[in-house]
Amino acid sequence: MNLTLKIWRQKGPKDKGKIVDYKVNDISEHMSFLEMMDVLNEQLINSGEDPVAFDHDCREGICGSCSMFINGRAHGPAEGTTTCQLHMRSFSDGDTIYIEPFRANAFPVIKDLVVDRSAFERIQQAGGYISVNTSGNTQDANAIPIPKEDADMAMDAATCIGCGACVATCKNASAMLFVGAKISQYALLPQGRVEAEKRAKNMVAQMDAEGFGNCTNTGACEVECPKGISLSNIARMNREFLTANLKK
Amino acid sequence: MSFESKTPEGPLKDQWTNHKNNINLVNPANKRNIDVIVVGTGLAGGSASATLAELGYNVKSFCYQDSPRRAHSIAAQGGINAAKNYQGDGDSTYRLFYDTIKGGDYRSRESNVYRLAEVSANIIDQCVAQGVPFAREYGGLLDNRSFGGVLVSRTFYAKGQTGQQLLLGAYSAMNRQIARGKIEMFNRHEMLDVVLVDGKARGIIARNLVTGEIEKHSAHAVVIASGGYGNVYFLSTNAMGSNATAAWKTHKRGAYFANPCFTQIHPTCIPRSGEYQSKLTLMSESLRNDGRIWVPKKKEDVAAIRAGKLKPTQISEEDRDYYLERRYPAFGNLVPRDVASRAAKERCDAGYGVNATGEAVYLDFSSAIERYGKEQAQINGEPNASKERVLELGKKVVEAKYGNLFEMYEKIVDQNPYETPMMIYPAVHYTMGGIWVDYNLMTSIPGCYAIGEANFSDHGANRLGASALMQGLADGYFVLPYTIGDYLSNDIRTGKISTDLPEFEAAEKEVRERLEFFVNNKGTHSVDYYHKKLGKIMWDKCGMARNAEGLKEAMQEIKELREDFWKNVSVPGSMDELNPELEKAGRVADFLELGELFARDALEREESCGGHFREEYQTEEGEALRDDQKYTYVAAWEYTGNPMESILHKENLEFKEVELKTRSYK
What is the pLDDT of residue A55? Predict the structure, then answer.
């Protein structure tokens, strides 16, 4: 298929960006979206132009690096799919595709489609862990039985790949789905329960400090999340946060 | 340079304990004055950084990704082995040790492997304490499954995302130390050289990938945890950015590189679909617990399938060749990876491949769906359930076990694996070879360590499934943090290492000149052009089967390609900005040297063992034929300025505990 691409180009963090048009031809429907971008970049390099910078690494939908806003949707049109797992069979010959970076105040653009998501790092450093040393001298792994339902729910929350699609999608650029998932994973397990309230307070404080917006229960984040992280994680986060504040 | 394995004396089972009791320690007050650099933040690097920081060292961690948690360990699917014997099926430290030695085709060091098996149980305890949500049974205890090459269930897992969960665990431990200021984290940084002062590793040169700035970082020891070199094949299951530059630069500064030809070709990957293919995707080995691998028995069925006239579900049982079950009745579909890969290649080479390229076999879940469905109907009290109902129940069980893998397959191939068998084919996945290390995990450069996939130590000529995660975390949590103290105990009075030393200046200058060359060369071909060409040579001549003639050709072709690269490569953009093409150029330049050493190593080893299959050395039944008289050694290569002229050092492997046998899975 032949396509017209309208891509956000921005030289550096301080430069002004703009949409630039490109054409790519003979794209196979079996290609992944990023392989289509590889074709474009090879074309640009061969004609002496600067290729489009974009984040990507595992190309298996698990590392959370890729982060494109495609036709107005985080990770594009397919549900439950990262950009790297999106395939060109989702598009048709003659389509025009808009490709932009994930946009949020807390995610400044570094170059073209690459954004700085280090705010997520700082939120996790504020409490996204269980304070246990890695000495190995803990108790036996089976010492505390954990109901399968709890373990499964913790696993569902822990599936988050930290890509930031929730933030990019939210009209308030809220990071609550991400933070809610991290807080939930630990709060649901006996090992993480011990520090659950302190963790919620600290992580939420850092989230606010980074300039993410608040949740107004639209639920777009849940729809666009490539890993299907549930909105109920935000409710759980709020509960932990409220309890923590009521106690003090 | 030191080249002694430093294996402790005494009986195997006491070696690690005795060693820990006898090595030198650094007191907590002195640890505060000692800096350690860790390059790479996967399971090995992440766990090592966290543990070293907890112990009190000042750690500087580097990764090329924008977050440590994006390292490619995150993509590991199936599980992690540990000799817990929770299933009561006869597992033990010894059995895990034995399986690993045998699985590696008797080309690994007994002492290291025994230690790995010994600490494996601690890993699971540790990860549970950290909040890793492993799969559990209804009683609340941990669940296990089986992987290839073993007869027990010792694999712990978190759906098909075990690597992700373990890495997030190590990353959370890192975050705790980053928050305390004990780890200084350098994201989007790439190590481009190691700096030696008075023969000891004392720092690195790294490039800030956002600003392009070239930075000098000093430390009292350097730990390389940068993963394997599978991307030398261009197409592999590695991440796009996975590279060998840190390891190769360390090699060029004096670290021996061991067994480069030991590469794992994983049997169950999604077949390639076209020339544009940028990477290959693994389908977890855990699928072989329930999936049955087959090709049609009749050539006419193969032709009809390729022409789209016949569907695999239309082929009757008696016309299917379940070739693994046929050839290896004892282990069936759960033979080790090297054996399963070669068997797939054998069928496809014989003309039984089931897709347009002729390079695919079926992985079929229909028997499992039926079996689980019947079991579930029984549990539900529906003994007379209809066939549809049984299948419906069975699909639910399979979905709970492998749902995310099935989804991933469907997204890529656009076929529903619950209804029609998956198509799979072997792909490059893991490299057993790597930087040579002694028992302490120190390379032949004093003060430079290598852990995880970056070293060569534990898997011999073939790694068993679910053992990479085990080794990465064992090295990082439980081995390196102790052994490194023995070396650093001599550094308590050294004080801060200055980055103004001439050795740092010289290394920085070299790095800068190389980058300048790339951006100024204005050649005619992109970096990918060369990478793909290299990959093709490697796959065709150093792939699943190798022979002397092909390997000689490969060496010559790689040398010519490298010369062409240095003349005609084109890198757009500048040095002082985010420039992914420039990053790739440096990595491919190193692969172009590594590939040649790889071929040379494969040529030198005139036997077949594990993942290294030399066509000249096979049994009448097509099985690997080892030569224990001549090749029971680790090939450790010393760099001398040109891969062709590298010097081969041999570390003889002594087997005191295990008797060398022909590996049989029949």
Answer: 98
What backbone phi and psi angles, to 5 degrees, belong to B427?
-150, 155
SS3 B159: coil
- Provide the domain limits for residue A179: 117-247
Residue with tokens 């090939």: B635
Tell me, yes or no, if B616 comes closer than 8 A to chain A by beta carbon: no
Final residue belonging to a domain, choices A72, A95, A111? A111
What tens digit of pLDDT does each residue of B273-298 get?
888 999 999 998 889 989 999 999 99
Calculate mean pLDDT across residues B456-470. 95
Domain co-membership, A128 together with A105: no
CB contact under 8 A, A49 and B572: yes
DSSP B601-651: HHHH--S-BTTB-BTTSB-TTS-B---HHHH-EEEEEE--SSGGGPEEEEE
> Please, are residues A99 and A123 in contact by the beta-carbon 8 Å criterion?
no
Interchain pair B580, A53: CB under 8 A = yes
pLDDT one-digit tens code per residue, A114-135 = 999 999 999 999 999 999 998 7
pLDDT of residue B2: 60
H-state helical runs in B522-579: 527-541, 548-568
> What CATH code is carried by the domain that includes residue A54?
3.10.20.30
Tally of domains within chain A = 2
pLDDT of residue B461: 97
User: Measured at the alpha carbon of residue B427, what is the angle toward residues B423 and B433, in degrees to the nearest 5?
Assistant: 155
pLDDT digits (tens, 9 = 90+) for B165-193: 999 999 999 999 999 999 999 999 999 99
- In terms of domains, do A242 and A130 share one? yes
**CATH number for the domain harbouring residue A216:** 1.10.1060.10
Average pLDDT, chain A: 96
Residue with tokens 């001398």: B640
User: How close is the nearest chain A Cα to the Cα of B468, in Å?
Assistant: 17
Q: Which residues have CB under 8 Å from B216's CB, separation 6+?
A: B195, B203, B205, B499, B504, B507, B508
Q: ipTM more than 0.85? A: yes
Same domain (yes/no): A31, A48: yes
Query: Looking at the structure, do residues A62 and A154 belong to the same domain, yes or no?
Result: no
Are residues B577 and A111, on separate chains, in Cβ contact within 8 Å? yes
Q: Output Rg (C-alpha) for chain A, integer angstroms.
A: 20
Among A111, A127, A148, which residue terminates a domain? A111
Given B168, B187, B278, which is nearest A158 (Cβ)? B168
Whether residue A221 is found in the same domain as residue A123 = yes
pLDDT digits (tens, 9 = 90+) for B42-51: 999 999 999 9
Domains identified in chain B and CATH numbers: 269-427 (no CATH), 520-652 (1.20.58.100)
The two structure tokens encoding residue B604: 């030198």
* Per-residue DSSP letter, B442: B
The pLDDT value given to residue B400: 85
Q: Are residues A124 and A237 in the same domain?
A: yes
Residues A79 and A95 in one domain: yes
Q: Is residue B403 scored above 90 in pLDDT?
A: no
Residues A154 and A207 in one domain: yes
Chain A segment 86-145 residues within 8 A of B by beta carbon are 87, 89, 110-111, 114, 116-118, 120-121, 124-126, 128-136, 138-142, 145
